[in-house]
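Researcher: Here's the sequence for the chain we discussed earlier.
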Amino acid sequence: MRVIYPIHARERMEQRGISKEQIEQTIKCPSISLPTEHKRRKRAMGKFGTKTLVVIYEPRKNNSAVLVTALWLKEDDRK
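Model: Thanks. This is the structure I predict for it:
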């Protein structure tokens, strides 16, 4: 799947130390997928060592997706 990275999402990725490879791997093979409040968006979660990455994206036609945001789940949030 081709991922489109808007400026805002790229800025957040840089601030949070998240790579494009981690985003794409999480979307392609999530550990878990959960619904979002927005009907067209999806939430994918992936494990990277001891960290959990949360990726919010909007699937589009032609096998592409627009990244909305990505963040590392805090340890306290997993309990």
